[in-house]
Amino acid sequence: MLSRNFTLQAAGDLDWIMEHYEFDSIAFSIDELVVLNVDRDISDMEQFCGNLAKISAHCFMPIAAGGRIRRVEDAENLLKSGADKVVVNSTIFLDHGLIRALVACFGSQSVIASIDYKRVQGNEEGQVYIENGTRPVGMTLPEAVAHAVELGAGELYLTSITKDGTGQGLDIEYISRIGDRVSVPVIISGGAGNFRHLSDAIKLKSVSAVSTANLFNFMSDNLTEAREEIIASGTPLATWEKTARNANR
Amino acid sequence: MISIIDYGMGNLRSIQNALTFIGASHSLTRDPDELLRAAKLILPGVGSFRKAMENLVGLGIAESIVAAAKLGTPILGICLGMQLLADEGEEGGACNGLGLIGGKVTQLETGSIDQRVPHMGFNEVRFARPLPIFTGIADASHFYFAHSYHLVGNRDDIAGTTTHGMPFTSIVARKNIVGTQFHPEKSQSHGLRLLRNFCYGPIC
C-alpha cells in the first residue's frame, strides 16, 4: 500500500500495516476499502491477489481493487481474491471493449471508473490524464465522466491531481459545479488533509463518498475521529460496533 | 451445515469469510441432492437475473431449492439471490424466478441526484416487523447495498424497507424464506450479527 501521491511514497508492506495500524479496528471506521496495485511490474498480480485475500478475510465491508487490469481474467482474479468491485483507470480510454466486457461479465455495480484530472485555474475545466498524470487523453472531466458512464461504469472515482498529496482540501468547488449532472455515484479524492476537508466534501449533494489515502488519516484513531466529526457536522454516516469481535458475543 | 449455493454467479469468498468468522460450518455446493439435505441454504448472487436463472435451471438446482423450501429448509437469499426468490425478473429479458416470494423484480427508478443508480453504499434499513434474524440489531441500522433492480412484491412479505430517493423493499420474509437486498457479509457488525442469527437461530 502506498500513499496515492503522484510521487509515490512507500508506506510499508501489508504485514507492517496490519501490525502498526490495528487494521481490524480501522476497518470499522470506514465504509469501504480501495486497494490499488501501483506496482510497475505486471508479474506481481499474483502477489497482489494474495494480499487482497489476506485483507478480505478480516474485512466485512466492500472492497474495491484495481491497478494493472488488462484482461477480463485480471478482474476475475481480483474478484476471486475478495474484491467486490474492480477499479479501472487508463483502460477507460485505451480499451473500450475491455470495459464493456467487464460490465457484461460482472455488472455495472462491479466496475468503478477512476478518472484523474488536473485543474489549475479556478474557473477552467479539468483536463483528464492517465499514466500517473503524465499523459493527457484530450478530454475534459465532464466529457470523460459521460464516456465512462456510457461504457457502463457503475461508480466514478474522481481524483484531482492538482490537489492530491497537498493536504490542502478536496476540489469541492469544481465537483459541486459539475457533479449534479452525473447519474451514478461519485467518490472524490485528492487533497484531504484534515477532518474538516472530509466533512465539507461529503456534505455536497453531488458527492456520494470521499476517499483518502493520506497517511495522516491512518495514524492512531484519526479515521475513527474523522467519522465522528463528520457525523457531528450533520452528515448521517453508518455506525457499527467498533470491532468485529462484538458480533460474536 | 450451511450450504452456500455455488451456481457460477458472483464471488462467494466474502460469504465464506463471514461464516468462517462467526464459526458456522459451511460448504459450497451445486449438487441437487446435497441441497435437499442441507440444514440451511444461502443463495448468493451478483449479475443478471436471467443469466442466474439459466444457471440454476441448467445445473438442475432450481427444482431442488424449491423442493427444499417446501420441506421447510431455512433459505437466505442475498442481493440477486433475494431477487431470484420472486415470480419473475426483467433484467436481461423477462424471465421466471423461483416463485418462493410473490412479485416482480424491476429496475430502480433513476431521477434526482438522490436517486443515482446503481444504488451503492451503506443505507438504513427500517424493519417492518420483528423477526428472529433481527435479534440484537437496532432498527434503522445500516447495511451495504449494490444494486440496480429491486423486488416489488406483496405487502405481507415485506420485512424491511430502505429509502433511496423513494422507498423500496430491502428485506422479504415468508415462513422459512428470507431475502436481503443488501449484502450482510459486507455490512460490518450488523451484517455479521444477521448472518449469525440466521445460522444459529430460528428463522421464523
Keywords:
heterodimer; A: 249 residues; alpha/beta; nine-stranded mixed β-sheet; two-stranded antiparallel ribbon; 34% helix; disordered C terminus; B: 204 residues; four-stranded mixed β-sheet; 25% helix
Uncertain regions spanning at least 5 consecutive residues of chain B: none
Largest sheet of chain B: 9 strands, mixed
**Number of E-type strands of chain B:** 13
Q: Outline of chain A, from the CA principal axes? A: globular
Q: Please, what is the average pLDDT of chain A?
A: 86
Share of helix of chain B, binned: 25-40%
Number of helical elements of chain B: 6
* Beta-strand share of residues of chain B: 25-35%
Termini of chain A, distance in Å?
A: 32 Å
Mean pLDDT of chain B: 95
Q: Over the alpha carbons, how many angstroms does the gyration radius of chain A reach? A: 17 Å
Biggest sheet architecture of chain A: 9 strands, mixed
Structural class of chain A: alpha/beta
The span between the termini of chain B is 19 Å
Shape of chain B: globular
Strand order of the biggest β-sheet of chain B: 2-1-3-4-13-12-11-8-9
Q: With helices defined by DSSP (H or I, 4 residues minimum), what is the helix count of chain A?
A: 10
Order of helical and strand elements of chain A: EEHHEHEHEHHEEEHEHEHEH
DSSP, total strands of chain A: 11
What oligomeric state is this? heterodimer
How does the helix and strand content of chain B classify structurally?
A: alpha/beta
